Automatic annotation (TrEMBL), chains A, B:
Subunit structure: Homodimer.
TM segment ranges: none
Location(s), subcellular: Cytoplasm, Cytosol
Record's function text: Cytidylyltransferase required for protein O-linked mannosylation. Catalyzes the formation of CDP-ribitol nucleotide sugar from D-ribitol 5-phosphate. CDP-ribitol is a substrate of FKTN during the biosynthesis of the phosphorylated O-mannosyl trisaccharide (N-acetylgalactosamine-beta-3-N-acetylglucosamine-beta-4-(phosphate-6-)mannose), a carbohydrate structure present in alpha-dystroglycan (DAG1), which is required for binding laminin G-like domain-containing extracellular proteins with high affinity.
Domain D-ribitol-5-phosphate cytidylyltransferase C-terminal: 233-374
Pathway linked to the protein: Protein modification; protein glycosylation
GO molecular function: D-ribitol-5-phosphate cytidylyltransferase activity
Phosphoprotein in keyword set: no
Gene source species: Phocoena sinus (Vaquita)
Entry keyword annotation includes Transmembrane helix: no
Reactions mediated catalytically: D-ribose 5-phosphate + CTP + H(+) = CDP-D-ribose + diphosphate; D-ribulose 5-phosphate + CTP + H(+) = CDP-D-ribulose + diphosphate; D-ribitol 5-phosphate + CTP + H(+) = CDP-L-ribitol + diphosphate
A GO cellular-component term linked to this record: cytosol
InterPro entries, A to Z: IspD/TarI (IPR034683), ISPD_C (IPR040635), ISPD_synthase_CS (IPR018294), Nucleotide-diphossugar_trans (IPR029044)
Protein name, entry field: D-ribitol-5-phosphate cytidylyltransferase
Length: 395, 395
């Protein structure tokens, strides 16, 4: 995994803090980078990003600096890195963190398998941190894998929801206007400095409402809800039978579609493909079988796919209860082994729940239990509550 | 219930929109109210509040105006009214809503039992709405129960977390500085108007970070999480036995205290008193009995108390399973009647869940099941998921 330069030569070891530079040098220094990528014969990436992440998060009212606060158990900065990594034309990302947090940051990069990230030590101010990041990009050392970029995006580590289109606007404007440093906050000091000290005109790019900054504790709550909502937009229904289109499994699927009309409900014909499409919710419907064999197959596929590295994946194993064949108590007892499965897969960030749906002869009652089943499935997917894994719910 | 003036004479029927007034008249008009409460022999309340709530919530990206968006199924504006009602020295609250939303607003006032609220029709701008509210307070009609206040607080309907201390600062400053209209937003148009047109000096009062405005959809998420957190700060444990301090119920209580160290865990000696203190979480531990009699008593008390009018109350009925006496399946079957209770009390905003805790002889295993029980209780209280009511969870 290429996560940060190993050994002592890369910017990860950047105790080499620039001496005696004023904040104003930041923008000037950044401007030196401009045009570097346009040199003839240079295969360097056109765009890089610098993330100042040395803040202490005082306003948050929590002891952890906000960029390291967990959302669904993953630190906020990892979401921001993910957002930037998704943009294919950002070749290098330099993160400036305090020496104190350097090791923790390395662990984050490794655990969440971030690629193309370099670390530098942050400065005492945000501008110093940015400067250190720019310096790492500007240095053309033999052992350094970083290359001089044409444009450098300065992006806050605590703005996790940045979209490619906004970044593209920034880069396009940077190229057109010759600016060297962009920041999307109105009235930011960076903009002020660029206007004051550079012989170039800074341009303000309108951000989207998504581009907000996690500042207070309430913003962490909001971020968590937004992330939960985003990964709950698709549900894959996996059946243990494919023949009978009329059976109760398909009826449950239809009910899910009706109840969750904003959610895409996919039939799991090709689960590998659906995993590749990053669906984080699976409903494994067992009609023909009354064990966890099908669920186990699905869990194996999920484990192999590494899908759950970034987000918790919800798997709901559904069984039906026909009172006439097996008594409720016995059925429950048989299914309690789900607790052990759940405990095991929880370690790999897969949240497994069981759902037992009554299957009465009476059509109206069946309709009702299917509806309740859909409600429970929706609730489990929406909340992604890790405290309830292994539970067997009854509809 | 005194919720809005009945009949056609009160400001609820305020189709009487002021003619030809400019925005600037607002502050001037407001200044007329200043000192009204100080008149000799006047028993009028000293302070009133006007809530402009006629906005359409365009930025929210949802069809419902943001002040009517539900949080835990209750409209946002009801939380704001609750925050103002709690302040004993605010005698009158005037809400300005569009004619279209007048009936909905009346329903909200009735359903959540808000007191001392008057309704006026909002204007086409925020200032017009405020003006209409002030006008209702200034009018000294015989049929109008409103009295001229000394100070009027203008408060956004979408700032639900306003605290008494901030309001008190505003009122104190208003009295000292003679200002008639205060708004806590820096650079607000109200402040601008007051400075421009009034011969008084407006004073800016520093708000708290809690005083934020629900503007975007993410703010609704944040508000919901904050409210959930606030009502989860206290758990009352009710036991069906009081003698043996060593028994498993007390051990579960101790485990809860350890696991949830930020939460106040109260023993339910005097449940009526605890209900009065507005505790919204109850764990009913059944050690001596294996039915729902104790839970039913608690539910009856909660229903009589009306505690659940404003927030959903969580009740978790805990049973223990001693494998040697009753088989698991049979125990589960016996306890399934909780589903019916839960369905019934859900109608009154009480969220009932069941929890079956294994009671093995092995001390280490018992410790483990108690810990898991505490985790499940914490998860249920934190999420307050209405989709899972009536479920029987197993620790």
């Amino acid at each position: 995994m290429e996560s940060w330069p190993p050994g002592g030569s890369g910017p990860a070891e950047a105790g080499r803090r620039p001496r005696g530079l004023r904040g104003a040098d930041l923008a000037a220094s950044a401007s030196l980078l401009s045009g570097a990528g346009a040199e003839a014969g240079c295969s360097a990436p056109a765009v890089a990003a610098v993330l100042p992440a040395g803040g202490s998060g005082e306003r948050m009212g929590v002891p952890t600096p906000k960029q390291f606060c967990p959302i669904l158990e993953r630190p906020l900065i990892s979401y921001t890195l993910q957002a930037l990594e998704r943009v294919s034309w950002i070749k290098d990302i330099v993160v400036a963190v305090t020496g104190e947090n350097m090791e923790a940051m390395k662990c984050i990069i490794q655990r969440y398998q971030h690629k193309g990230i370099s670390l530098v030590e942050s400065g005492v101010t945000r501008h110093r941190s940015i400067f250190n990041g720019l310096k790492a990009l500007a240095e053309d050392q033999p052992n350094c894998r970083l290359s001089k970029p044409e444009v450098v995006i300065i992006h806050d580590a605590v703005r996790p929801f940045v979209e490619e289109d906004v970044l593209l606007k920034v880069v396009t404007a940077a190229k057109e206007h010759g600016c060297s440093d962009y920041d999307l906050e109105f009235g930011t000091e960076c903009l002020h400095l660029a206007l004051k000290y550079c012989h170039i005109k800074a341009k303000l790019i309108e951000g989207s409402p998504d581009l907000w900054k996690v500042t207070y504790k309430r913003d962490l709550y909001a971020a968590e809800s937004i992330i939960k909502e985003r990964i709950s937009q698709q549900i894959c229904v996996v059946m243990d039978t494919k023949e009978d289109e009329e059976h109760v499994g398909h009826r449950l699927e239809e009910m899910l579609k009706n109840e969750l009309n904003h959610v895409k409900v996919t039939s799991g014909r090709d689960i590998q493909q659906i995993i590749l499409e990053q669906c984080y919710n699976f409903v494994c419907v067992n009609v023909m079988t009354s064990d966890f064999e099908e669920t186990q197959k699905l869990l194996n596929m999920l484990e192999e796919s590494n899908l759950s590295i970034l987000y918790p994946v919800v798997v709901i194993s559904v069984q039906f209860l026909d009172y006439e064949s097996v008594p409720f108590g016995q059925k429950m007892e048989n299914l309690m082994q789900i607790r052990e499965f759940a405990k095991e897969v929880k370690k790999r960030n897969i949240l497994l729940y069981g759902l037992l749906v009554y299957y009465p002869q009476d059509e109206q009652k069946l309709q009702e239990s299917l509806r309740q089943g859909a409600t429970i499935i929706a609730a489990l997917i929406k909340e992604r509550n890790s405290g309830l894994v292994g539970q067997l719910l009854v509809a």
